[in-house]
Design goal:
homodimer, 169 residues, 56% helix, globular, DNA-binding
Chain lengths: 169, 169
DNA sequence: TCTTAATTGACAGTATACTGCCAATTTGAT
DNA sequence: ATCAAATTGGCAGTATACTGTCAATTAAGA
């Protein structure tokens, strides 16, 4: 036996879920940015804008729960959205710590305008698959993300996180 | 009609592939880091180490093609792996521009030692699904990533990228 | 050969993500 | 009422990712 094959091959990477998830995320972001180039909005900024429109007057901590972001990361995202004029930060009357987030008129207009591009991007990500496979993949992925929700640093808390806002419940 | 419902709900985010891919990536990295904490190695660093072991003497540009990384990102990854003593960078004799990458003994030992933890992490990511669903999800995802390969900035080039190294072909 | 192309590695700048820390503030327990 | 605990936003530091640029070097063409 002259030549010993390496203990590990690249299949130790390529076929594993971790690698495929990372790769797919790279591709998804790439497609999103490409389709939405004219609006100068990243996927994360888009999600934040939608959440702020859906929950006007939300604060940063609750926003992070609603879109499952890290709070530290969110700070800079909010700052960028504010400096672009898409959102406003107003101090709360009841709690001097919090700053409430609101969409501006231009932010709302941007959100309406960008929708078709976002839809195109989302469609392109799955385009190579057959319709039945697309459906199956999304169903399995939604299930897996939900069942693993508690794992990441910021689990998704969706609407229940908003009951202190006096808007729900 | 007193109260007009918002034009957009959070389903414009939650149910979309882009969001699910990002969320799943977050979760996968979180699990990997948790399982491999004692080895102080990130998913990206792990992939790079495996690729360097599989292709000793590879250069940074080809490495980026083999693991589908951005070359700019890879620079700092390599630097970190080198400063931890896991890899070595040696100047090439033929081409004064390139620096060839080799695993060190401690790098090889680390790779062998970390394997069980990596396997545990990969298993945990899919653990909430039934066996048949795991298989289905991986098959669909592998297919989708492959069919979208050309989209991202650094398409995966796998082994064909190495034919100039005088090792293959 | 000489000029142009392309390649390689490095760097600057921006944008997620995460860990961990901090001060100001609010809440809860006593 | 007061002190401890929790919350909020912010910051420093690290690690991917990407865009774009650059100098050194090599390869290719006229």
């Amino acid at each position: 036996m002259p030549s010993r094959p390496p203990d590990i091959t690249m299949d130790a990477v390529y076929t594993k879920p971790g690698y495929l998830f990372r790769r797919m995320q790279q591709i998804a972001v790439s497609i999103f940015v490409e389709e939405c180039r004219e609006f100068d909005l990243t996927p994360v900024q888009y999600a934040a804008l939608v959440a702020i429109q859906t929950h006007p007057g939300i604060d940063a901590t609750r926003l992070s729960a609603v879109i499952a972001f890290d709070r530290s990361t969110l700070g800079s995202v909010i700052e960028r959205l504010e400096s672009k004029g898409h959102i406003e930060r107003k101090p709360s009357a009841e709690d001097k710590r919090v700053k409430l987030l609101y969409l501006t008129r231009t932010g709302g207009a941007l959100l309406r305008a960008i929708m078709p591009a976002v839809d195109r991007a989302q469609a392109r990500m799955l385009a190579p698959l057959k319709a039945a496979d697309r459906k199956m993949l999304m169903a399995l992925l939604a299930q897996l993300v939900d069942l693993n929700n508690e794992v990441s640093r910021v689990p998704l808390r969706a609407e229940d996180a908003l009951e202190h806002l006096g808007k729900a419940g």
